[in-house]
Amino acid sequence: MSTGKIGVTSHDLFPIIKKFLYSDHDIFLREIVSNAVDASQKLKTLASTGEYKGELGDLSVRVSIDSEAKTLTISDRGIGMTQEEIEKYINQIAFSGAEEFLDKYKDQANAIIGHFGLGFYSSFMVSDKVDIVTLSHKEGAEAVKWSCEGNPEYTLEKVEKADRGTDIVMHISEDEKDFLEQSRIQELLNKYCKFLPIEITFGKKTEWKDGKQEETDEDNIINDTNPAWTKKPLDLKEEDYSSFYRQLYPAGEDPLFHIHLNVDYPFNLTGILYFPKIKNSVEIQKNKIQLYCNQVFVTDSVEGIVPEFLTLLHGVIDSPDIPLNVSRSYLQSDGNVKKISNHITKKVADSLNDIFKKDRKDFEEKWDDLRLFVQYGILTEEKFYDRAKKFMLVKNTDAKYFTLEEYEAIVKENQTDKDKNIINLYATDADAQFTYIEAAKAKGYDVLIMDSQLDNHLINHLEQKTPTTKYVRVDSDVVDKLIQKEELKESKLSEEQKTDLIPVFNAQLPSTGVNYMVTFESLGENTQPLMITQAEFMRRMKDMAAMNAGMGFYGEMPDSYNLVVNTDHALIETILTDKDAKLSDKLTEVKAKLQPLFGERDALEALKKDKKEDEVPQEEKDKMTEVQKQITEVNAEKEGLLKGFGKDNQLVKQLIDLALLANNMLKGEELAKFVKRSVDMIK
Fold it and tell me: What start-end ranges are recorded for coiled-coil regions in this protein (predicted)?
């Protein structure tokens, strides 16, 4: 037996390897099993080249637990190691046997996983001691046992071993004893080794017998050595893709469709990506794409290898050309990663376009589940937008689908305003905005349904891309002003009548932290007497603020609406007539008080004309202040009279409640009062 020191440059390196080499301790199992698979793949390569002439036999990698001895053992029947190879590959940290083997057999080698020669040392993260018992495949080789207790000291001795290959025996430390539990190891094998190219055996299969689970004589093979993504697309049927998806996500809902990646130049990339159904709510689940390197699970955090929007997809990507750090747990940025990312983006966009052109009806049926993904891609990836605009769909209130180009051709003639802008009208809730939709349709306009949580951002993005196309929500203004084609008609009401009506309606508007502004439009005798609208800009800013904390200024502002009074409607004339009948004398008195005050104010204004502020005598300034104060007091008296009239006027209240009801803004006690009042008015 010989002893020695492992070839490390510092005694401090071993604790670093033991504690910090990998971000997750459980990664050790992947590394040790991967090494065992590498050893088996190497032997298959040597056999294929004629350098190994023996029988390959069973190449399964076996994982076993000995609870009494507190050991976890990984055994393979692969290439094995001689004493010289132990000293070369194990005792010199970071000298990778895989790299040397690949250089020699780069044209014949089966998939070799290891790259850095450090994977074996991950075993010390969970072990007090690690033994290697190995017998090389080489003729005349002697078995050796290497032992180390997690420090640079090791022992190396000749032992008896019946068969070629390597056993890695890990003496699990007390604080890591959960790695001696069957369920824990099964869980990790399923996570990291589910698709390794060599069979991995862990225990025996069980079956339900006599009211309990009993072991059978059949080995429990935990992996699929030939998963769907390693096969050619021509060799797979639709049911194969569906079956593989259920294998990846047993509890998942069936996907919409899939894309099979199969690239061998200028880089190697295989995989299958699935489009899940994404409903119209915040249920986006990222980290569903699994990244593999030669069928070894690496990570499900793939933001570094695919654009952000593609992280919404499910499936598998496998590439030996993706550069990985020493632990294979984090991606390193380089030009190759960018090329792969760009290719995946292009492949996804081209595949969607092919599906769209091949079976548009099927594509339209799936669009509502697909649109959130496409919109996310358009908003976050410029190159995807350039391709996606060919197949991105919009849907109108009649449930008809159009591409952006098709829709422009349909609405261009009738929905171009006087400034040559195409106005795309849209609704976010067909039921709540029904009245406004019908008013727009009566004018011959078409209305889109845009109820996705990303539509607000998408609208802004599309308006930037096509500045002559504007998106206007159908309830953001009266129908004649949504698409202005000519000057609006003059109101029948005088400015004085409008001024009088403002406090009349303000007296009955809700005081619930919402701001209302009374405005006047000439909308025709057959249009509703009152309408409630919300300005497009402010509503859009508030909607975006709800999704973006950085826009908190808009989110904190109260909601603001316009109460639009139709000056052409007979009921507005009725209110004015009633107002004159009840307040004529009092308003005349107020007007009599105001006229001399206005005259005095005008005279004072004339005196200071062409004078600088410091040239105006203080007496005149004081007099102006006093006159303005009196005007304010008389106006307050007038406003009080008008508000008192409005507050007691059932017709005013009824019309406001009807407008609120049309916008789904009348609820609770106020709705109950409205119903009772309506019944009373009918009697």
Answer: none
| The predicted structure's pLDDT at residue 547 | 59
Give the model confidence (pLDDT) of 496-544 as tens digits.
999 999 999 999 998 877 889 999 998 888 889 999 988 777 777 766 6
Q: Which of 305, 227, 298 is nearest to 267 (CA)?
A: 305
Confidence band, pLDDT 50/70/90 cuts, at residue 94: very low
- CA triple 282-288-290, angle to 5 deg: 165
Task: Determine if residue 76 is labeled as part of a ligand binding site.
Answer: yes
CA distance 563 to 27: 64
Q: Is 97 annotated as a binding residue?
A: yes
Give CA separation, 502 vs 224, 514, 585, 630, in Å.
Answer: 76, 17, 19, 21
pLDDT of the residue at 491: 82
pLDDT tens digits along 399-432: 999 999 999 999 999 999 999 999 999 999 999 8
pLDDT tens for each residue of 598-629: 999 999 888 888 888 888 889 888 899 999 99
Rounded to whole angstroms, the Cα distance separating 94 from 114 reads 11
Cis amide prior to 266 (ω within 30 degrees) = yes
End-to-end CA distance of the chain: 111
Q: What share of the chain is helix, strand, coil (3-state, %, to 5)?
A: 45, 20, 35
Is 25:126 a contact under the CB 8 Å cutoff?
yes
Angle ∠(482,484,485) on CA atoms, nearest 5: 140
**Token digits of residue 448:** 């889109």
Strands 447-449 and 393-396: antiparallel
User: Which H or E run contains 242?
Assistant: helix 238-248
- Where do the H-state alpha helices sit in 381-432? 382-388, 404-411
Cβ-Cβ contacts under 8 Å for 174 (sequence gap 6 or more): none
CB count in 10 Å sphere of residue 273: 24
Whether 201 has a pLDDT exceeding 80, the answer reads: yes
CB 423 within 8 A of CB 415: yes
Give mean pLDDT, residues 548-558.
57
What is the Cα–Cα distance from 96 to 114, expressed in whole angstroms?
Answer: 7
Calculate the alpha carbon distances from 393 to 374, 390, 405 in Å.
Answer: 10, 9, 10
Phi and psi based region of residue 612 (left: phi greater than 0; alpha: psi -120 to 50; beta: remaining): beta
What domains, with CATH codes, occur in the chain?
2-213 (3.30.565.10), 228-359 (3.30.230.80), 392-482 (3.40.50.11260), 495-680 (1.20.120.790)
Whole-angstrom distance, CA of residue 324 vs CA of residue 244: 26
How far apart are the C-alpha atoms of 472 and 483, rounded to whole Å? 9
Give pTM, 2 decimals.
0.72
Q: Which residues of 366-378 are buried (b: 16+ CB within 10 A; e: fewer)?
A: ebbbbbbbbbbbb
Cβ neighbour number for residue 359 with a 10 Å cutoff: 12
- DSSP letters along 589-644, please? HHHHHHHHHHHHHHHHHHHTTT--GGGS-HHHHHHHHHHHHHHHHHHHHHHHHHHH
Q: Is 77 or 93 the better-scoring residue by pLDDT?
A: 77
Question: Measuring CA to CA, which residue among 465, 339, 487 is closest to residue 392?
Answer: 465
Binding residue per annotation — 81?
yes
